[in-house]
Amino acid sequence: MSVTKRTSKNVLLDTALKNFYGAAEEMGLEDSLVEILSRPERAICVSLPITMDDGSVRVFEGYRVQHSTALGPAKGGFRYHPDVDLEECEALGSLMTWKCSLAGIPYGGGKGGVACDPLELSMTERERLTRTYAARVAPIVGEWLDVPAPDVNTGAPEMVWFMDTISKLRGRLEPGVVTGKPISIWGSKGRTAATGVGVATCIKELLKSVGADVNGARIIVQGFGNVGTFCAKTMLEAGAVVVGISDVTGGYYCPKGIDVEKAIAHVTNHPKKLLDGYTQDGMEKVSGEDILLVEAEVLAPCALEGAINGKNAGKLNVKYIVEGANGPITPEGDAILDERGITVVPDFLANSGGVIGSYFEWVQNLNGFFWTEEEYNNRLIPIMTDNFYRVWNYANKNEVKMRRAAFLVAIKRVADAVKMRGTFL
Ligand code: NAD
Q1: Euclidean distance between CA atoms 299 and 344, whole angstroms
Q2: What is the mean pLDDT of residues 312-328?
Q3: What residues form DSSP beta bridges with 66?
Q4: Mind giving me the DSSP string for 412-425?
Q5: What angle do CA 146, 152, 155 make, to 5 degrees?
Q6: How do residues 159-202 score in pLDDT, each as one tens digit?
Q7: pLDDT, tens digit, 9 for 90 and up, residues 392-423
Q8: Phi and psi for 413 in degrees, rounded to 5?
């Protein structure tokens, strides 16, 4: 490869670039495509003057980066966090390009955000910030252009304000300009469960692929929030035995199987939505670290990044790990798992049910016709299954790990689209 490789002082962007150049080299991607795909198509900085509740005016900095629109409108959330900057948005936007490509949906990748501390903002300040951000990025967002979504510290209220502002500016409703809206305002049934159901689909297909029985397979689910609960529930429905669950309050181990419905009811009724105090027959309360070490077929880390690392990867007693969370395994942890022959289904394949769910919301918005939850799942599961086998087959055929296979498959689809579409003039 004779391209001049870009580097960055931003660790996230530098890592994203290194990973991309490494994969591009491995797959023999031609130089012009490497040059094109190592840069975002468009990146904008916006200044956001906001009248605060006390009457003062503060100016915030916002960003929107469209890494690629080769496969379709840019897709990716916008976040509110003090660390948000252009480089971070560029890095995360490129990861969205690969994730959407692998998911097999007609989207490119993008990311945005505003550098702010959301804890310091009142709801009215948050609303003004979101509406000003929407107005400033309005020229580059749209149903067929760039479709943002929730991300760190943004959720349904921000999506509604964003959609409403764009619609008012354009003088017509544009529900599909953003996804992650509440069901009552052009959101979609099924979206809440989509990521966990997708993770469970990967676990089931992985077990089938290695000739193991899903029925009776022992599963540990780390993290009992949105992704973890729906993953555990779906696995239980498939006949698996959820032997361990955990959240910030520690681990809950039951070799005969956690009563997942009962645990979900406990969390729902808990004032802080925690497992704290949960108990059932034959259950033992252990630490959050120890629950990862119990013997099982599959571990599904659905909590935070870095949960499996150089310290604990050598002690795990599972054969397979399916990453529900983003980045739950550190590079050191990954190397150890690799040596130990533990198969890992990577995050951007396993948790892509979320972005596929966003695509479903957009499709329904464009059609003005809503699906039932059953229709939603009937569409989600075959797509997740196809994606799993695309990566599984590539990994086996080319004798590479699934993480590498997923990345190579994803880059190839985008590169093919760029090549077919060609350059402009
Ligand atoms: P959530 O906030 O609903 O749940 C997180 C859970 O993890 C909580 O139960 C929390 O108590 C638990 N947790 C936190 N620290 C822990 C620890 N040290 N040990 C054990 N448990 C711990 O979040 P979520 O939406 O379920 O997201 C979980 C992960 O999945 C994140 O990495 C997120 O980026 C990723 N993800 C989520 C979606 C989605 O649609 N929600 C989509 C793609 C990826």
Answers
A1: 10
A2: 96
A3: 42, 110
A4: HHHHHHHHHH----
A5: 70
A6: 999 999 999 999 999 999 999 999 999 999 999 999 999 999 99
A7: 999 999 999 999 999 999 999 999 999 999 98
A8: -65, -40
* Residue 305 pLDDT exceeds 90: no
User: How does strand 250-253 pair with strand 284-286?
Assistant: antiparallel
**pLDDT (0 to 100) of residue 424:** 81
CA distance 391 to 241: 26
Q: Taking each helix axis from N to C terminus, what angle separates 11-26 and 86-103, rounded to the nearest 10 degrees?
A: 40
pLDDT tens digits for range 90-114: 999 999 999 999 999 999 999 999 9
Give the count of beta carbons closer than 10 Å to the beta carbon of residue 100. 31
Q: For residue 414, which of 100, 148, 112 has the smallest C-alpha distance? A: 100
In the structure, which protein residues have their CB atom closer than 6 angstroms to any atom of ligand 1?
195, 222-228, 246-248, 288, 302-304, 324-326, 351, 354
| C-beta atoms surrounding 424 within 10 Å | 4
In one-letter notation, the amino acid at residue 239 is: G
Query: 167 alpha carbon to ligand 1 midpoint, in Å?
Result: 32
Nearest C-alpha neighbor of 394 from the set 26, 143, 49: 26
Ligand 1 pocket: which of 302, 323, 352 to mutate (most atoms within 8 A of CB):
302
Residue nearest to atom 4 of ligand 1 (CA): 225
Q: What is the whole-number distance in angstroms between the Cα of residue 33 and the centre of ligand 1?
A: 35
Calculate the alpha carbon distances from 270 to 143, 224, 251, 273, 288 in Å. 39, 13, 17, 5, 19
Catalytic residue annotation: 111
Helical ranges in 144-295 per DSSP H: 156-170, 191-209, 226-237, 260-269
